[in-house]
Amino acid sequence: MHTKIQIRLNGKMQTLTVPPFRLLLDLLRDEIGLTGTKEGCGTGDCGACTVLLNGKPVNSCLVLSGELEGADIVTIEGLKIGPYLHPVQQAFVQEGGAQCGYCTPGILMMTKALLDENINPTEEEIRFALSGNLCRCTGYAKIIQAVQTAAAELRRSYEEFPSSQRRGGCATNKMPRSH
Amino acid sequence: MKRPEPFEVFQPASVPEAREFFRKNGPGGHFLAGGTDLVIAIKEKGLVPRYVVDLKKIPSLSGIRESCDGSLTIGALTTMREIETSSVIRKKYPFLAQSAAEVGSIQIRNRATIGGNMANATPSADVAPALLVLNAKVKISRSGGEKIVLLEEFFIGPGKTIMEPGDILTEIVIPPTPPDFRGEYIKFSPREMMDLAYVGVAVGVVVDGSRKICRDVRIALGAVSPTPIRARKAEPLMLNQGITPSLAERVGEEASNECKPISDVRSSAAYRKEMVRVNTKRALLNAAAGYVENLSWTARRDRRY
Amino acid sequence: MEELAVVGKPVTRVDAEEKVTGQTVYGYDLVLPNMLYGKALFSTRPHAIIKRINTERAKNYPGVQAVITGADAPWIHGETIKDTPFLAQGKVRYVGEPVAAVAAVDEDTAQAAVALIEVEYEDLPAYFSPEEASKPGARAIHEDYPEYHKADFIVTSPLPNVCEHFKLRTGDVEQGFRKSDLILEQSFRVPAIQHAAMEPHSAHAMVDDSGKLTVWVPNDAPFRVRTETAEALGLPPEKIRYINPYQGGGFGSKGGLKVERIAIALAYHTKGLPVRVKFNRQETFVSTSTRHGAIVRIKSGVKSDGELVAREITIYWDAGAYSEKSPTVCIRGSLPSPGPYRIPQVKVDGYAVYTNKPVAGAFRGYGIPQAAWACEQHMDDLAKRLRMDPLEFRLKNIFVDGDVAYWGEQLHNVGLKETLLKATEGIGWGKTEKLDPKGFKIGKGFACIAKPTRTPTTSNASVLVDSQGKVTILAGTVEIGQGCSTMLSQVAAEELGIPIENTRMHPLDTDVIPFDSSTTSSRSTFHMGNAVRHAAIHAREQLAEIASGILEAPQEELRFSDGKIFLDNDPQHALTIGEVIRRQLGPDGVVRGNGSYTYELGKDVDPQTGHSDHASAFYMYATQAAEVAVDEETGRVRLLRVVAAHDVGKAINPLNCVAQVEGGLAMGIGAALHEELVVDDHGRVRNSSFLDYHLVTSLDMPEMKTIIVECPTPDGPYGAKGLGEPGLAPTPAAIGNAVANALGIRIYDLPLTPERVYWAIQAATD
């Protein structure tokens, strides 16, 4: 039982033949081989599997492949900008926002979604946006700090290069990384 | 928790097409809205659909429309996040936007839909009490035409509604409210976010501007009865009275008497009753104090404490 | 001391970049050629005889390669008591015990086949409380306990279902109570909680043609689990190889044989094909391990001036169905349970008791948090009755340098008092805060702990220096997220005078990496830090010998800095490390430095008295303080601020030290306010999901302040000791004391959920 879908994955158009009941998370990990997206609970309660679906953060463990015709999907593997770390990634490195790192891909995707909408979030807005991403290691302090650092860096770069704002520093408009 | 077993997914482009699909393919089919309940049911509760009809590609099911008479129509496939962030709803019924913002996480709210949430009839659904105090109606598309019913009459038990197989919930309709209508929703749960309501209380009041007298009182409770309910016995106690802390407390007590909570892993029934009392009081006092423009999370948290 | 170049600096993590790009390979990211997928069938009964298992339908299901039961994997394991079958042998002892397993071509097939296995049970009476299970006359959950193979130090008991009885006897407590002006006796309860590492448990296993077993699993003690596996299977250790992918958090859960044993059992029935077994979240909650639930009875006698005279403690540790690490949790958690205080008369009895519940095991803190919940709240209540300030009361009794602890050891380099003063200062102890605008009750509290580490243990390490000056570190410490890779890279870089970018950690593989005891008990900075330091010094000495010939200078005058070797007075003629190797050993040359470190124990802990002149390589001291606002109408505790002061000896990486404490606080706050693994009277876990088992979210965390205290321990690398565990140990007690301070009501049981606090307030006002 398979169905043919065309999706844009990390900026690259792909035609896939997939079982329609397969969850997006399993599709990414098992069928496409992108293991950066993690399963923490499988029930939408932890956010580890967060990806961007048509620009919006969703739990990929609750999305069926059969719903994906025409979808635009960005995963952690699509976050880098060419060979460079995305400012969000850079900030998490700098501030120690990752410990075991297992929740990190989901948190980075959520952070990107937040900063795409709001380039100058308050601490409260950051905490609110990330409340669906559980982390057992950090106590969230360094994650919040990293988001603030990333936001400041993005604001700085938009001032310097106003044209980059429309792209939101997003890899989907760039050349995709090969895997 | 298990992986889904095989089934087909169809994506019709219109409501009639969806219903026709369902009729032709026979029993074992499930409509799919946001999927945040359906997929969990498949993974955790042993649901094995034969096929799934995804309603997301039906344009007429989405969107929030305000009519010139002041009524508000919300398409069934409108996501919780859209309700939370809708400028119309935030302006007109901020407490409804807040109740949507209490559901799960942003990731969940980007998927979960108001129609799916109502059709799933979870007693603890956050948006249900808010819609109940707005006297919301639901529009159902079924063979032989459309049916419009009050949301209060729509729920009949945990996970049960008046909908029959093949019915599609298409719209939530909120009738016009008086200009000085004020609402409030308080979700009570131990964790600040990512929790189910242990108790949810929505109130709507119309306060006579000059004399501070309640001309209309509506109270709805979530998670404390087999369905979200209106506290019909408590409401009249406040009618034509001024909202004072002691009266609000008495109304809360009555609401507490009226509900029929269960004990479960989250809470005992007795505690739920106590929390209905306290939070009904708080919601009434908050509503009486008027709309708080600040819809930030901190403001919301501070109001429920 | 000479200025340090890398050690002591807030270096960013060496593993950060691969983690933020999604490239890190965790347990189930690994894909092996021709891999099969395994799924287990778990017991649905808390205590029952298996009458019959029918696997026929599962075996005939298309795509199934193997279906196995206990008969196909007749092995028993256990770290200190050999009591745990790979798959249930004739009976089950908890809901969630693996009974059978399937290997199939994909996960869907394995799942479908598991559902076809039929098991017929005959129920036996079950026990869900350690007090009930250890009452004289209770039925044995392990009928064969007397015959089990046990470690030498296990102390058995005539009471039923007790798998370890720890005893500490110092002075005469009865006489102490007689001499006391005030006696207080209380009882506290701590529920089981779960580690809930974000990565669920998974393992891959394969048996090759030569009979060699390879297991790929994020395990926190690859060498220890290799030994345990070898003992169970009757294989020499060299026939077993453990390879560690990255670990997505563990906190004590990912040690021993859990998901591993199912993968191993299946691998013996798949004709050489590798098999992956991945637990989902629910299985991880129920079928791996939990933190011990505990009942702590504490009785103290004090003089009216606040001098502690005697303390008697009885702790029932709820071991669950199998011993796992219960005996050592019982020993090392009970030993310091009277708290970090001078007490002349002490009596402690710790009982680890089998029950028909999920297996309890190691959990960050290893018994200290449970004891601290009781002891530190008891201390506040004693102070209240003495009409003394809790701070003054503690200052009068806490361990200071040179004290002889009640287990007979003289303590040195004790940073406890400094943590106590700094944490209480940080929270503004004694200062009245302005009233809450809503009339909520504001309160402050604090708690102290001392935590030992597992002793004696050994770490070995090697560093390889190549002709490009790059350094590879071979160390058996597992990167669980705690930052050991960064810390060890800093140590190697420091000793070799190279930039940290020139170091890399070798992946962990027991066939390649020298032996290390475990990545547990906060031992790695101290033990492996020393081993890597010695290895780096060994390599440096070899490099110095070569360089002294080239530079015609005595070795002791050579300096190592920035990847170069030079004479202090002649930096122009510096040689790079790579150049030195190339000149002597050619372009393919490698210099290998080896290091080893064992902390020698003095006298072992005496099984009858609990005494030892050296029970631990070092002690970790901490004080945490909290401020809360309690909503009396709902019982909700809102945490306003926490301050944590920790004596780390020396912060090798201050950034990661703060990160460890912050993460510990989050866990401690969860344990204080939310977390409890609820087991019903049928032995079923009722909240085995993140929906109902509440980890704190970003919105639940209060303002945190971390204070690092450095009281160097001379044996540690640069004075450092451990820090991994203490971050959560005093947190619940500090919050409990703050709640009691706010309400004037003591709540004895965790967690402090709104409902529990609400009923406590009601009971007090009735």
Which helices and strands occur, and which strands form pairs?
The complex is a heterotrimer of chains A (179), B (305) and C (766).
Chain A: E1 3-9, E2 12-18, H1 24-32, E3 50-53, E4 56-59, E5 72-74, H2 87-95, H3 104-117, H4 123-129, H5 141-160
Parallel strand pairs in A: 1-5
Antiparallel strand pairs in A: 1-2, 3-4, 3-5
Chain B: E1 8-10, H1 15-25, E2 29-32, H2 38-44, E3 51-54, E4 64-66, E5 72-75, H3 80-85, H4 87-92, H5 94-101, H6 106-109, H7 114-120, H8 127-133, E6 137-142, E7 145-150, H9 151-154, E8 155-157, E9 160-161, E10 168-174, E11 181-188, E12 199-208, E13 213-222, E14 229-230, H10 235-238, H11 245-258, H12 269-288, H13 297-304
Parallel strand pairs in B: 1-3, 2-3
Antiparallel strand pairs in B: 4-5, 5-10, 6-7, 6-10, 8-9, 11-12, 12-13, 13-14
Chain C: H1 16-20, E1 36-42, E2 48-54, H2 56-59, E3 64-69, E4 76-77, E5 84-85, E6 91-92, E7 98-104, H3 107-114, E8 118-123, H4 130-133, E9 162-170, H5 173-179, E10 182-190, E11 202-207, E12 213-216, H6 222-233, E13 240-244, H7 259-267, E14 275-278, H8 281-287, E15 293-302, E16 308-320, H9 326-334, E17 345-354, H10 368-386, H11 390-397, H12 416-427, E18 441-452, E19 458-466, E20 471-475, H13 484-496, E21 503-505, E22 508-509, H14 524-551, E23 558-561, E24 564-567, E25 570-576, H15 577-585, E26 590-598, E27 619-631, E28 636-647, H16 654-673, E29 703-709, H17 731-743, H18 754-765
Parallel strand pairs in C: 1-14, 12-13, 16-17, 20-21, 28-29
Antiparallel strand pairs in C: 1-7, 2-6, 2-8, 3-7, 4-5, 9-17, 10-15, 11-12, 11-14, 13-22, 15-16, 18-27, 19-20, 19-26, 23-24, 24-25, 27-28
